[in-house]
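[audit] Reproducing an earlier prediction to check determinism. Same input, same settings, fresh worker. If the tokens differ from the archived copy the diff job will pick it up downstream; this log only records the rerun itself.
[audit] input (199 residues):
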Amino acid sequence: MSVTPTLQSIQRLGFTIGGEPSVAIDLVDTVSLAESPVVDQLDGRDAAWWELQSPRLPDGPTPEAGPTRRLRSVLREAFEAVIDGRTPEGWVIDDLNTFADSVPSSPRLVAAEDGLEVTTRWHREHGGDARLAEVAGDGIRLLADPRRRAQLRRCANPACSMLFLAENSRRVWCTANICGNRIRVARHHREHSTGTAQS
């Protein structure tokens, strides 16, 4: 069973958000599009991010920067389309499938202490990057699941570009400790300023 990194462990390493049940969403959220200029949180920290995600990914070296950013862009296009009620464009679907197909995998039955388990064998002899293939596969599974697809959200803070899965229907912020706090503080200042102005 894979272990999802916690938001706290991700933020300790300087990443804004993470710990989503989908590694594909965590990858998409490594770029802050709402900032000017855009902030790529992987710059110089690719290895740290992949190490955090390693419990839920196949073993392997840190994927190259170019393909990682290409997959991140394709996933964002797909997720944004779904959030906006559109079907992702054909090139987006094709690129996602190409990433997922780049390293074939097959189920393997193994004996475990408490019975039998299914593991995944990645056929690296065909080339490609198993970690990128798994992230693409995770995104594909999310997009193909109507329940999870309906939980995909954009942060309610208009100054934020982060995405998340709203497993709790009341969740509206990417993180309560960043965007939730910013909005609450701004609301408090507005209310306090209005109250002072009326005095």
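[audit] rerun output stored. Observation attached for the diff report: The chain has one domain: 7-198.
[audit] end
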